[in-house]
UniProtKB/TrEMBL annotation:
Transmembrane segments: none annotated. This is cyclic-guanylate-specific phosphodiesterase. The lineage of its organism: Bacteria, Pseudomonadati, Pseudomonadota, Gammaproteobacteria, Pseudomonadales. It comes from Aquipseudomonas ullengensis. It comes from the Bacteria. Residues 31-283 form the EAL domain. It is found in: Cell inner membrane.
């Protein structure tokens, strides 16, 4: 009857509540654990960079790489950024961690160049907090001077949503970075739901098409990807497709004359020695 039905509804409501409370506690505890070991991780040199090749889609030549941070945790093993970058952002550790990533990526790239590997650029991801940090621009300049990497060889990737938050402030920071001579890329382009005309006023060199649009190439013929490529070309941006996984996507991107590509079809992120070996082979076969 109605009473027992009501009773059961209340009970299950309470159970759901208990369940969510428990799940939240687990998350909070996990976050706490991650945060406390994160602080030691930098001192203990537990972070490493993987380098994912970027290819010129016309020639198949490797033009450079994107540096991707990983945490070599003593118990958890190789830990991906989705698990710790958000925590590092919340607790502020992203600033010294980002500094480390930038220095390590620039140093490695300079070393490669000295060994005769002519990388056009190394791309480094910059989080919201780093980008807005008062010392960021000076820090980039200092690291370039320290590592002796030519500024045009450094490409900073900033997501569209970070750029569009306080767009006027972003614009000023981007201009200062441009003055140093580094390249600027909009990461995850198309996912920020922002005013396109505003975004395109920024002094940007590269649009990185978010992988969701690249993956959609299978399903709905990739009309968004091709519109992005056409727009990028007519506005003189370099267009990079991220997350290229299939031959069909590659064929499509080549036909649409997308400049560069990155994805598991070519290679995952590699250790520096592996990357150097791949680079020496000069290109990945793009037979299609
Ligand atoms: P992102 O900058 O958009 O990087 C691309 C992500 O896609 C990387 O994941 C890469 O491994 C993955 N990926 C590459 N090719 C493919 C593919 O063909 N298919 C699929 N499904 N995925 C592919 P990862 O390394 O786990 O990084 C995730 C995100 O974490 C990055 O997204 C970036 O926002 C952030 N991140 C990575 N390294 C750093 C860093 O050093 N500093 C900061 N602040 N953020 C970083
Ligand atoms: Mg990126
Ligand atoms: Mg991206
Ligand atoms: Mg992404």
């Amino acid at each position: 009857n109605a009473d027992t039905a009501m009773y059961h509804a209340k009970e299950s409501g309470r159970n759901n509540y208990q369940f969510f409370k428990h799940a939240m506690n687990v998350r909070a505890v996990e976050r706490q654990v991650i945060e406390s070991s994160l602080w030691q991780a930098l001192d203990r040199h537990e972070f490493i960079l993987h380098y994912q090749p970027k290819l010129n889609l016309k020639t198949g030549a490797v033009t450079g790489a994107e540096a991707l941070v990983r945490w070599q945790h003593p118990q958890w093993g190789l830990t991906l950024p989705e698990r710790f970058v958000p925590v590092a952002e919340e607790c502020g550790l992203i600033v010294p961690l980002g500094r480390w990533v930038l220095r390590e990526a620039c140093r490695q790239t300079r070393r490669w160049q000295e060994q005769g590997l002519e990388l056009a650029s190394i791309a480094v991801n910059i989080s919201a907090l780093e980008f807005r940090h008062a010392d960021f621009v000076a820090g980039v300049q200092l690291i370039l001077a320290e590592t002796d990497l030519p500024p045009q060889c450094l490409q900073l990737e900033i997501t569209e949503s970070v750029l569009m938050r306080d767009a006027d402030i972003s614009s000023g920071i981007l201009q200062q970075l441009k003055d140093i001579g580094v390249q600027l890329a909009v990461d995850d382009f198309g996912t920020g739901y922002s005013s396109l005309s505003y975004l395109l006023k920024f002094p940007i060199d590269v649009l990185k098409i978010d992988k969701s649009f690249v993956h959609a190439i299978n399903a709905n013929t990739g009309i968004i990807a091709s519109a992005m490529i056409a727009m990028g070309a007519s506005l003189h941006y370099k267009v990079v497709a991220e997350g290229v996984e299939s031959q069909a996507q590659l064929v499509f991107l080549k036909r649409e004359q997308c400049d560069e590509g990155q994805g598991y079809l070519f290679s995952r992120g590699l250790l520096s020695e592996q990357f150097a070996r791949l680079f020496l082979h000069k290109s990945v076969p793009l037979d299609c």
